[in-house]
Design goal:
Blueprint (H helix, E strand, L loop, with lengths): L1 H5 L4 E9 L5 E10 L4 E5 L6 H8 L7 E6 L4 H6 L3 E4 L11 H11 L6 H10 L15 H13 L5 E5 L7 H18 L2 E5 L3 H7 L2 E5 L6 E6 L14 H20 L8
Parallel strand pairs: 3-7, 3-8, 5-6, 6-7
Antiparallel strand pairs: 1-2, 1-4, 8-9
Helix pairs in contact: 4-5, 4-6, 5-6, 8-9
Bound molecules: adenosine-5'-triphosphate.
Amino acid sequence: MAAERTDPPAVICRAVAKTFAGGTEAVRPLDLRLEPGQTTALVGPSGCGKSTLLRMIAGLEPPTSGSIEIGGAPPAETLRRADLSVAFQDPSLLPWRSVRGNIALALSLARRPADARAIDELIALVGLEGFGDTRPAQLSGGMRQRAAIARALVTEPRLLLLDEPFGAVDELTRQQLAQDLPRLWEARGTTTVLVTHSVTEAVMLSDRILVLSPRPAAIVADIAIDLPRPRAPGDARTDAFAALTDAVHEALSQGMARAEPPLAAQ
Ligand SMILES: Nc1ncnc2c1ncn2[C@@H]1O[C@H](COP(=O)(O)OP(=O)(O)OP(=O)(O)O)[C@@H](O)[C@H]1O
């Protein structure tokens, strides 16, 4: 069983679409295959449907039509087996538990043994050394986000879904996380999906970037990020890095241009 858990899953979306009850079409029928062990970044304009797509993959939002498979199983089953973890921009930490207590809870909910050493290692990895016994209210927004990332990682999920996880994290810590986290999920072979507004961050962290159109989300570009790993902050100053960020910006502009104009302008 243990060997089975270590296999990273492919994520397959078949004609997945979402229209909310009020009539908002968030995601157009979309076909997608995310490769096992790869890190894929979703970038696109605000409100285009990135979080909705991520929430559908997480099994937290049912698609209106189409189907999603994670390593051959539906998302709800993957979530139930704790093979999947999500870290959102707005971390939902339990206020009465310390950082360590919140991370430990994820292990106990996943019916995994408490592992004080693994918890402490993760606390250090996200730069929260010395704050293990602190409650969320005593942390900054960025520190809470980092605690939520540690909580998402502690169960060693095969699929890791990150929705703007560094939104409130300061620039230096972001750079540190952008170096340390990929090392961890590469070592574990985790399949990772990252939603981010930062094109630089997307290029730094991912193997592939999917550029989405304005709502309803459709894929306008699929860009392979073939930069060598491990990557360092200095890589962002290379020509290869600049060419990739340019390609993403170009695709974002093309997506905007292709979008229908707002009703008032028609
Ligand atoms: N539960 C919901 N009910 C109704 N509409 C929703 C719901 N959740 C999201 N939407 C709408 O769906 C669209 C896509 O939202 P979503 O949060 O997926 O976008 P996003 O690309 O993640 O945005 P951002 O980058 O600003 O976080 C938006 O128009 C949003 O208002």
